[in-house]
Design a protein that fits this description.
Strand content: under 5%
Shape: globular
Largest sheet: none
Distance between the termini: 25 Å
Number of helices: 13
Order of helices and strands: HHHHHHHHHHHHH
């Protein structure tokens, strides 16, 4: 009797991009904080996805992919750009004006919940029992991390609630975009071409929104800001979203969202190295539960049926 094959999500072809996305996005929270010192968030988002879109289309050309798309593809790219690269990221940047990057990262760890619900409604994907158990363990860990970060927050309760509400709005927009990437329409077009036009259309909408709300473009000429734009545009967007959306198509939105569950732990590790972050027993316990839930969920053989 032959041995049962390992679940797809424990293969190196999934684990390696999963680890890369988690490490990169876990580091972006510190970079985003530096982006908010001088430049309005809408302009920072515009610059980021202009760089990302140009990078993606350049990669598409190197791969020999056609850059032209039909009306259906263009419409889909614009909607994807609106959900992921306009609404989601404008809300992310604004939420960090009220609450710490650690709290925002923890809120985004809850992405697996709407991803699983929307995947069930629109894609017919059911969560397996093992994925449900892993999710419950991970959410318990996220709750401990949230309590820990909330205790450290220097802002008042009203500002904290406003920041959390803004971040939750971003989570919902990101979830819509995640499920869009798992549809047959998204699969009908080359990944790099679709993402490139989605990012550039998102950047154009970001620029229009910025002009209407904060006025003419503003740029911060500090090397850390310019370098941050390049890092967020190339690694934090072009590379990471390519890998992440491919994960969605391979293992489904619910399991791919586990990158977000692990990201707060990675963000805290980076903060430990670069910001002198001090761990508490509460934070350590939350991190252990998050990792345990992740292991349980990724070992599920039939997470999405």
């Amino acid at each position: 009797m032959s041995a049962e094959p390992a679940p797809q999500s424990t293969r190196l072809s999934v684990l390696i991009p999963f680890a890369i996305v988690t490490l990169i996005w876990g580091s972006t929270w510190i970079v985003i904080r530096d982006q908010l010192l001088v430049v309005p968030p809408s302009w920072s988002v515009t610059y980021r996805f202009t760089v990302a879109g140009v990078t993606m289309l350049g990669w598409a050309l190197l791969r020999g992919e056609r850059l032209a798309m039909d009306a259906r593809g263009i419409g889909f790219a614009v909607l994807l750009g609106l959900a992921q690269f306009v609404l989601n990221f404008n809300l992310v940047y604004r939420s960090e004006q009220y609450i710490t990057s650690g709290v925002v990262a923890v809120v985004y760890a809850l992405l697996l919940v709407p991803n699983a619900v929307l995947a069930r409604i629109f894609l017919g994907q059911k969560m397996g029992r093992q994925l449900v158990i892993g999710s419950a363990i991970a959410v318990a860990g996220v709750a401990l991390l949230f309590v820990h970060e909330a205790r450290l927050s220097a802002v008042g309760p009203h500002a904290a609630l406003l920041g959390i509400g803004i971040a939750l709005g971003g989570v919902m927009c990101a979830s819509v975009a995640n499920v869009m990437q798992a549809t047959s329409t998204a699969r009908a077009y080359p990944m790099a071409t679709m993402l490139g036009w989605a990012m550039l259309s998102g950047a154009a909408l970001d620029a229009l929104f910025a002009l209407a709300t904060v006025g003419a473009p503003v740029f911060d000429w500090r090397p850390s800001y310019a370098g941050g734009i390049l890092y967020l545009g190339v690694l934090g967007s072009a590379v990471s979203f390519s890998l992440y959306f491919r994960l969605i198509r391979t293992i489904g939105p619910a399991k791919a969202a586990y990158t977000g569950v692990l990201i707060p732990v990675i963000a805290m590790l980076f903060s430990t190295l670069f910001e002198g972050y001090r761990w508490s027993w509460l934070a350590a316990g939350g991190a252990v539960l998050v990792v345990a839930g992740l292991v349980v969920a990724l070992k599920a053989r039939r997470p999405n049926r």
